[in-house]
Amino acid sequence: MIKTRFTELFGVEHPIAQGGMQWVGTAELVAAVADAGALGFLTALTQPSPEALVKEIARTREMTDKPFGVNLTILPAITPPPYAEYRQAIIESGIKAVETAGYKPQEHVDAFKAHGIKVIHKCTAVRHALSAERMGVDAISIDGFECAGHPGEDDIPGLILIPAAADKVKIPMLASGGFGDGRGLVAALALGAEGINMGTRFCATKEAPIHDGIKQAIVANDERATELLFRSYRNTARVARNSVAMEAVQIEREGNPFEAIAHLVKGARGREGLENGDPEHGIWTAGMVQGLIHDIPSVAELVERIVGDAEALIGERLAGLVATRERANA
Amino acid sequence: MIKTRFTELFGVEHPIAQGGMQWVGTAELVAAVADAGALGFLTALTQPSPEALVKEIARTREMTDKPFGVNLTILPAITPPPYAEYRQAIIESGIKAVETAGYKPQEHVDAFKAHGIKVIHKCTAVRHALSAERMGVDAISIDGFECAGHPGEDDIPGLILIPAAADKVKIPMLASGGFGDGRGLVAALALGAEGINMGTRFCATKEAPIHDGIKQAIVANDERATELLFRSYRNTARVARNSVAMEAVQIEREGNPFEAIAHLVKGARGREGLENGDPEHGIWTAGMVQGLIHDIPSVAELVERIVGDAEALIGERLAGLVATRERANA
């Protein structure tokens, strides 16, 4: 067992979270993560309406007795989803942990805090982490350049971002982006985090609601098999490299208008890409940690292995490298 | 004391190296690193001739009794430096450790090995590390996206690159790029490396032969204050952000020919930039680890602090987080 300020704060067994993932964060995965003693988050906006989210929360509760949370990601949009209603659905369902992400979450954070809900905010820069801390969140999920989805525009990897944030942020932090095994968990703890958040690694588990063809592609891909889209619009997204992603990169490079790229991406991405077994079919997100993923275990096997490996690394390898001056001089 | 396969192989006290740095890897710094119990490398090509390198090796020996090495970086050039003569100078001076970097080092590796010299080869990709291992080098310095100078074109940070390499490479590896403190050393050891190589962090020490104005700039800069040049020519270099670097980035973005960018960079960079106290004067290299550098200690103070902090992290923080099941259930 590895006990940190994160496990204490959220009342879970292991310092591991499965943060929000569009189309993937449903009852099947979140209940398995909860049962494994880690903290899973349903993705609110994967549900078509606040009413559907209420039902998904109830469905998850039928599958596990352990605590789980809900992710609410706030994106600027001309016609935004009914965020306040999703928020209300979360509060009224008695959820005790929320992961927020995106822009200007203050009003949502205030509402969650007023109902005694613990909030962890995901961000990609030290200055954003400090701003979230001032906003009153309970914890930070600090997301490095390695991550799937939106790494921000600073391109600072976890090796730098985590300790740089730890030098300034006082509330507990989860390290996110690039984590998938016990080695990463120990590195995160050494760098100043209180645990890890994993996305891509949880996608390659038996319970993830993704076609097996995509899971096999994650296993087959190495660490270089990702592409960055929308860099020129300062809205960068890291996705798995395939023919569609490479076409999108190419038309972006040629200076085509945003609409052309968005059309290509929109036509291909989403639930359809994950439900179709052909990894070339659509655009789907994956992080660099693909290069460290070699199998498709159950969630329980994965969590158990990560914690066991981390314990062994700390108690055996690392402890063994530290020689007392006496022993070293002997 | 932290003892690893690296400290054993090279017969040094601490699992820390100061690899080759053009204009910086001179007797003053390398002797201080050696005296501190770490492994410093003189930069061969900083010396104007093989004869000058022989003298610099002798000068270093006057300053320290401890072992040190020499870096030989092989770059493709129309009129290359006399690599074979530099190599011969290294061998005839009785140097026992060499850091190689760059293209096709096979003939140099063969010659060094034939004289019983231990070779550590620096590379930025798993496939290059495997190729160097096949070439017969003794160790790898695996250099992540965070690093100053040449990170390669794959953009894989250490958090992924180190364990991905450790999954395949059998000889000992140093982790390079983004390292500057005890937290990083423990992370590197957890991820599968046998120690760390530091560049930028050693530049911000009392003994580094760099103007104090540049050292202060490293302290003042945060992790975001670097730029990537020559990306469009697949010869990427990470340098400190200043007005000259930003101008170079801009003319590269505008699609100017290589010559225009090279002219601007060449006119500004080099020894002059480091010897002038104005950080805006020229182009000079620095890694993202700038964001973790807050002071200018002596080399001895720095090495002592890193090892002491790493020991404490392993023996106190990490050991303390691991609860036995009995304790956790109590």
Topology:
Two copies of one chain form a homodimer.
Chain A: H1 5-10, E1 16-18, H2 27-35, E2 39-43, H3 50-63, E3 69-74, H4 83-92, E4 97-102, H5 106-114, E5 118-123, H6 126-135, E6 139-143, H7 158-166, E7 173-176, H8 182-191, E8 196-197, H9 200-203, H10 212-220, E9 226-229, E10 237-240, H11 243-253, H12 258-268, H13 271-275, H14 299-321, H15 325-329
Parallel strand pairs in A: 1-2, 1-8, 2-3, 3-4, 4-5, 5-6, 6-7, 7-8
Antiparallel strand pairs in A: 9-10
Features of the shown structure:
homodimer, TIM Barrel, 8-stranded parallel β-barrel, two-stranded antiparallel sheet, 10 strands
Instruction: Tell me the number of strands of chain A.
Output: 10
Count up the helices of chain A: 15
What average pLDDT do the residues of chain A reach?
94
The quaternary structure here is homodimer
Structural class of chain A: alpha/beta
Kindly state the percentage of residues in helix of chain A. Answer: 40-55%
Known CATH architecture of the domain at 5-203 in chain A: Alpha-Beta Barrel
Most extensive interface: pair and counts?
A-B, 50 and 50 residues
Query: What is the class of the domain at 5-203 in chain A in the CATH system?
Result: Alpha Beta
Choose one word for the global shape of chain A: globular
Strand order of the largest sheet of chain A: 1-2-3-4-5-6-7-8
Question: Biggest sheet of chain A, in brief?
Answer: 8 strands, parallel, barrel
Write down the CATH topology of the domain at 5-203 in chain A: TIM Barrel
What value does the Rg of chain A take, in angstroms? 20 Å
Strand content of chain A: 5-15%
